[in-house]
């Protein structure tokens, strides 16, 4: 089919003549070939579009995958970082917990020690003040009934330990000291006597029996008006128990802190009537008024035989001498009995059944008047009884 150009001023023959001398071959014009080319172009265009679309989809998939992978790695990295932070924090806490407490400075330690010492000293002063101001009738109560209001349990324990240690020290001092020196010490410092007897009351609580209770029970059966002398009486417990029953009890000790007690050095000359007889004769002496003399754990000073001598002086003929002493003090019981007998007594009975104490019953007998040299020889045997010794406690 020939092409027509309707352009003004232009015209073309229906069958144009090919140029002369042209070597080009004239391609046949065909509608079929043109349609084929158009169709092929359309197919190629569709393939190109599909290829481009597929590549774009693949690129988008890779981008999404890369984003997803990057997000996953970031999340894992954050989790690992968080775990590392937690582990580091735990390690810091562990180290801080394991560290020892900082040491106290020397200045602070000295200040704390001084405060503790002042508190103990103040507690001790308050305790002594309360004990001294207490009425005399309260002296026989046990140590656990003593005033201790306002003290914590720890302070009470410290107070008891201090009193126990003080008692052991004073007790040993009295055993190893002459009675005159002991008397002077207590006159110069009356609190020593109170401290000693406070500790003594605490000590009594650990005994299976108390010799004082034994003598109270025994003497309760004696006739009214019986005169009893308690030497080294302490709180005068025997007098308190027996006077209401009609007995006359005279109590002597180094310090008088209540109306029942007369202050006296019991190893000296008692303020009681009596004599030792005349030189060159055997006698019981004269002017005696005492029926019974009691030594309940009171043969303490280094000159204790002198107290036995004065007991003989004040006792009536056949008067009774009762002695209770710590068993561990005896080096030899027979030697002790022999020494007491040489002063003018005869052994009536001996009781060694108690695990802590030995009890003796003596009777006054007539004796020959002794010279001072003979008395000095008797006094030199005081080591027949050894002092009570207390081990130092670590706690």
Automatic annotation (TrEMBL):
**What's the Enzyme Commission number for this chain?**
2.1.1.-
Q: Which InterPro entries match?
A: RRP8, RRP8_N, SAM-dependent_MTases_sf
Q: Where is the composition biased (Polar residues)?
A: 129-155
Q: Which residues form a coiled coil?
A: none
Q: What GO CC terms are in its UniProt record?
A: nucleolus
Keyword Disulfide bond present in the record's keywords: the answer is no
Q: Which PANTHER family match?
A: RIBOSOMAL RNA-PROCESSING PROTEIN 8
Family, per the entry?
Belongs to the methyltransferase superfamily. RRP8 family.
Q: What does this protein do?
A: S-adenosyl-L-methionine-dependent methyltransferase that specifically methylates the N(1) position of adenine in helix 25.1 in 25S rRNA. Required both for ribosomal 40S and 60S subunits biogenesis. Required for efficient pre-rRNA cleavage at site A2.
* Protein name (database record): Ribosomal RNA-processing protein 8
Which source organism does the UniProt entry give? Rhodocollybia butyracea
């Amino acid at each position: 089919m020939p092409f027509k150009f309707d352009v003004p001023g232009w015209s073309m023959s229906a069958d144009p003549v090919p140029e002369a001398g042209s070597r080009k071959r004239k391609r046949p014009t065909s509608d079929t070939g043109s349609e084929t080319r158009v169709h092929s172009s359309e197919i190629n265009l569709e393939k190109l579009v599909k290829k481009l679309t597929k590549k774009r989809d693949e690129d988008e998939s890779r981008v999404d995958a890369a984003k997803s992978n990057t997000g996953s790695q970031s999340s894992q990295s954050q989790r690992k970082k968080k775990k590392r932070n937690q582990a580091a924090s735990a390690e810091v806490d562990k180290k801080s917990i394991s560290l020892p407490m900082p040491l106290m400075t020397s200045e602070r330690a000295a200040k704390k020690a001084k405060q503790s010492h002042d508190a103990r000293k103040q507690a001790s002063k308050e305790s002594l003040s309360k004990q001294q101001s207490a009425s005399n009738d309260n002296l026989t109560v046990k140590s656990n009934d003593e005033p201790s209001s306002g003290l914590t349990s720890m302070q009470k324990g410290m107070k008891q330990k201090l009193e126990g240690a003080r008692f052991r020290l004073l007790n040993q001092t009295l055993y190893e000291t002459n009675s005159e020196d002991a008397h002077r010490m207590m006159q110069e410092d009356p609190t020593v006597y109170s401290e000693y007897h406070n500790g003594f009351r605490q000590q009594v609580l650990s005994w299976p029996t108390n010799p004082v209770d034994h003598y109270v029970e025994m003497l309760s059966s004696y006739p009214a008006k019986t005169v009893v002398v308690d030497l080294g009486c302490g709180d005068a417990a025997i007098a308190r128990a027996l006077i209401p029953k009609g007995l006359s009890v005279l109590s002597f000790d180094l310090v008088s802190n209540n109306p029942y007690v007369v202050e006296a050095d019991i190893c000296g000359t008692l303020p009681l009537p009596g004599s030792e007889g005349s030189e060159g004769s055997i006698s019981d002496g004269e002017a005696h008024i005492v029926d019974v003399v009691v030594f309940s754990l009171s043969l303490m000073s280094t000159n204790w035989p002198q107290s036995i001598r004065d007991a003989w002086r004040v006792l009536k003929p056949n008067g009774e001498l009762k002695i209770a002493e710590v068993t561990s003090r005896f080096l030899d019981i027979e030697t002790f009995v022999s020494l007491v007998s040489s002063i003018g007594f005869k052994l009536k009975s001996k009781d060694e059944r108690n695990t802590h104490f030995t009890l003796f019953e003596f009777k006054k007998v007539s004796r020959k008047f002794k010279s001072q040299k003979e008395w000095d020889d008797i006094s030199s045997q005081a080591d027949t009884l050894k002092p009570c010794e207390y081990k130092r406690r670590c706690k």
